[in-house]
């Protein structure tokens, strides 16, 4: 049998299967069983069943996706970000169930410290948090995953790269679009889930358990439709931080209280150190409520309103491994370890209490005539109604019951809002078939972080004297247009242009003794986009995409830094925007029972925004890296009824050569790997359905060596602060008990691989769930 070069390449990459197919495609023979989601036209994804995605699927570029049925069958999903787990080149840095502040999305050429280089939406409402980038000094900027539960997801789609003019420069890495349920008739769902993680790391040997419950109800009556979703999670995560001291930092001698229980080891630079205990073992309670209302003014005009409410309450608690001669735990003071003395400060073992209540509103009115004209007007608001973190400044055991402390508060002064008007024109009688999309939008962000000393008890006392106050605003006004043109029987082209005007204002930093305001700034940029598809053969499509993305500094990067601990974070209100050119070339082949894809991608980013330590100081600040360049390839396959009926398989393999090309501020980083972007990563899964009731899934994920520092000095990734390679295996079995009841059992990280991304990831975790659907 003759094979194309693409088929040969994929056979070599995935020898364990007959070349797969994309999860986005379904052969016609299974249409009745699984409601096909997409059909192929010039390699462009077109939704034909289920809830439609809001992604611009007429653009011939890489789009991957997963449906509700596939999530339920294949994934042990406890949070909405789990839906992305096995999609090519994606990683969410989820450290524990309910991780609300560090679960950042990584893409082909962006690591888990660059949350502002991807765009996450739910029903068109922005979930990405562009108040900042990554994690900085206690403030977090991960997407607001908690505003979507796994049970309400209808489908998730991902567009790789900044190839649509409809999205801001933050789409440089990827655009993720969650579509949630909107019933056409009465339906109800209830789900209960339980997870257990036996954890064994250093001197922590404990099992951490979690519970989730959810319920949803929805229906349609005449022109009205509605959906309500409620959920609650109670999660115990493994310890995430550790109190450490390098051996060399101790003073030789007999001073201090002799202690035992410390764990010797090597840090990320292979320097000997002691692990003295844990910190930030979170007990998290989360509640979520979602109301969706829709009204059809006519058969072609619909209004939709969404109200989301998310509440989080978490306690971060430490444990000292150290004990004195009487067996009592030691948390502070001068201690002696093997003839060296070390001083433990009052916050060496930190405690935190977090309380958040966030609201999300979304309103849209749009037409869907599929005629010459369609339009949409949409607005959204995300409000930090309450957002507080309390921490003591006294040591344990006193800190457990009270004492002095601080309060960091963002409530009422932090959030964002968006306003968009867009249209679609399908001109008649013009040469070739055109679809012209265009729009204008405004995005505005405000940040305020007030930190004060607490009056009285840190656990509940009111705000007192000022420690620091930082904040500011950013705003972007944009206009865009793009034309999808089928100019010949086997050709399609898309040309687009996005223009953006960005402003930063009202920035300031205040302490108890001073206030420093920053001048306002503005910049305008144009970002062209282009894509081309050619139907090379009946079963093979070639696609090429090119796009420019301008990612403006966030208000947090400009103004949001404060000072804490031994490391100082300072502002740089004069940061330049980072500007990327991204391109990809793909070939897709229909294999009858699946789809194989091979993609070459390249990205060059000027003035990349990165937090970096200023050499020979203890000061860290966000700075521009002159140039970062990434080149790589991605192979992807998904197939149905592979080898035998009922066996579905999928796999992907990604290679990325991502290097810092120029960085005058830190020359030692030139030629080094971009942090948190591994050279190799891969996923593979197989689902077997022996009959209509049972489904068994096995999946594996691999990520190669990576670094966290710009100069790649962290050569030991298997340590606290490190970023390690990993290989994990997940298992899931689902049983359809009857028409309404189903149960599932699973194991994540079944091989119990201990791996790190600054913090330790979860070890082997068992899960069970029971579900009722009407």
UniProtKB/TrEMBL annotation:
The keyword Membrane belongs to this UniProt entry's keyword annotation: yes
UniProt keyword terms in alphabetical order: Cell outer membrane, Ion transport, Membrane, Receptor, Signal, TonB box, Transmembrane, Transmembrane beta strand, Transport
Signal peptide residue numbers: 1-23
Locations listed in the record: Cell outer membrane
Pfam families with a match to the protein in the record: Plug (PF07715), TonB_dep_Rec_b-barrel (PF00593)
Residue ranges occupied by any TonB-dependent receptor plug domain in the UniProt entry: 58-175
Coiled-coil positions: none
Domain (TonB-dependent receptor-like beta-barrel): residue spans on this chain: 339-749
UniProt xrefs under InterPro entries: Beta-barrel_TonB, Beta-barrel_TonB_sf, Plug_dom, Plug_dom_sf, TonB-dep_rcpt-like
Bilayer topology: Multi-pass membrane protein
Family: Belongs to the TonB-dependent receptor family.
Protein name in UniProt: TonB-dependent receptor
């Amino acid at each position: 049998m003759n094979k194309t070069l693409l088929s040969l390449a994929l056979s070599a990459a995935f020898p364990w299967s007959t070349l797969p197919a994309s999860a986005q495609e379904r052969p016609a023979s299974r249409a009745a069983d699984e409601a096909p989601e997409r059909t192929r036209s010039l390699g462009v994804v077109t939704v034909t069943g289920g809830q439609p995605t809001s992604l611009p699927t007429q653009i011939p570029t890489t789009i991957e996706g997963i449906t509700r049925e596939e999530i339920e069958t294949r994934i042990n999903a406890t949070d909405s970000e789990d839906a992305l787990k096995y999609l090519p080149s994606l990683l969410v840095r989820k450290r524990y169930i309910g991780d609300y502040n560090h679960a950042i999305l990584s893409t082909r050429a962006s690591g888990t410290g660059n949350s502002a280089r991807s765009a996450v939406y739910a029903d068109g409402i922005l979930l990405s948090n562009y108040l900042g980038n990554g994690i900085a000094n206690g403030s977090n900027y991960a997407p607001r995953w908690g505003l979507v539960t796994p049970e309400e997801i209808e489908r998730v789609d991902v567009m790789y790269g900044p190839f649509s003019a409809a999205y801001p420069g933050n789409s440089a890495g990827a655009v993720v679009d969650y579509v949630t349920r909107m019933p056409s008739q009465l339906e109800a769902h209830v789900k209960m889930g339980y997870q257990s993680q036996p954890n064994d790391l250093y001197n922590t040997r404990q099992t951490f358990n979690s519970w989730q419950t959810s319920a949803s109800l929805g229906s349609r009556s005449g022109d009205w439709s509605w959906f309500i979703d409620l959920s609650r999670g109670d999660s115990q995560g493994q310890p995430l931080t550790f109190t450490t001291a390098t051996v060399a930092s101790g003073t030789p001698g007999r001073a201090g209280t002799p202690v035992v229980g410390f764990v010797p080891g090597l840090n990320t630079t292979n320097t000997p150190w002691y692990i003295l205990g844990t910190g930030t073992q979170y007990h998290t309670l989360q509640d979520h409520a979602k109301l969706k209302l829709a009204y059809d003014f006519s058969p072609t005009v619909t209004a939709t309103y969404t109200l989301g409410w998310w509440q989080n309450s978490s306690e971060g608690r430490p444990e000292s491994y150290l004990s004195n001669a009487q067996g009592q735990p030691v948390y502070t003071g001068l201690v002696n370890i093997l003839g060296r003395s070390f001083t433990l400060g009052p916050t060496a073992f930190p405690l935190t209490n977090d309380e958040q209540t966030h609201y999300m509103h979304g309103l849209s009115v749009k037409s869907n005539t599929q005629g010459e004209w369609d339009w949409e007007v949409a607005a959204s608001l995300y409000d930090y109604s309450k957002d507080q973190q309390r921490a003591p400044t006294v040591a344990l055991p006193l800190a457990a019951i009270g004492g002095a402390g601080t309060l960091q508060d963002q409530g009422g002064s932090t959030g964002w809002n968006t306003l968009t008007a867009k249209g679609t024109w399908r001109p008649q009688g013009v040469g070739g078939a055109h679809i012209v999309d265009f729009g204008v939008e405004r995005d505005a962000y405000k940040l305020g972080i007030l930190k004060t000393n607490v009056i009285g008890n840190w656990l509940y006392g009111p705000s007192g004297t000022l420690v620091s106050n930082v904040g500011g605003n950013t705003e972007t006004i944009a206009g865009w247009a793009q034309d999808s043109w089928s100019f010949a029987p086997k050709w399609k082209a898309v040309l687009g242009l996005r223009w953006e005007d960005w402003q930063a204002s009202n920035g300031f930093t205040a302490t108890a003794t001073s206030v420093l305001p920053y001048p306002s700034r503005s910049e305008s940029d144009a970002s062209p986009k282009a894509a081309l598809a050619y139907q090379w053969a009946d079963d093979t499509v070639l696609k090429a995409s090119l796009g420019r993305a301008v990612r403006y500094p966030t208000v947090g990067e400009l103004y949001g830094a404060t000072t804490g601990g031994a490391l100082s974070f300072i502002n740089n209100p004069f940061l330049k925007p980072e500007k990327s050119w991204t391109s990809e070339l793909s070939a897709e082949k229909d294999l009858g029972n699946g789809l194989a894809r091979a993609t070459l991608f390249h990205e060059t980013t000027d003035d990349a925004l990165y937090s970096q330590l200023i050499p020979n100081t203890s000061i860290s600040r966000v700075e521009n890296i002159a140039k970062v360049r990434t080149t790589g390839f991605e192979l992807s396959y998904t197939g149905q009824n592979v080898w035998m009926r009922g066996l579905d398989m999928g796999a992907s393999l990604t290679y990325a050569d991502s290097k810092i090309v120029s960085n005058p501020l830190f020359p030692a980083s030139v030629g080094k790997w971009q942090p948190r972007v591994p050279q190799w990563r891969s996923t593979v899964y197989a689902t077997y359905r022996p009959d209509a009731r049972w489904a068994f899934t096995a999946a594996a994920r691999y990520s190669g060596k990576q670094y966290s520092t710009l100069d790649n000095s962290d050569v030991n990734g298997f340590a606290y602060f490190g970023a390690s390679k990993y290989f994990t295996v997940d298992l899931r079995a689902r049983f359809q008990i009857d028409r309404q009841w189903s149960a599932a059992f699973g194991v994540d990280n079944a091989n119990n691989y201990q791996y790190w991304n600054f913090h330790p990831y979860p070890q082997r975790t068992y899960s069970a769930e029971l579900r009722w659907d009407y």
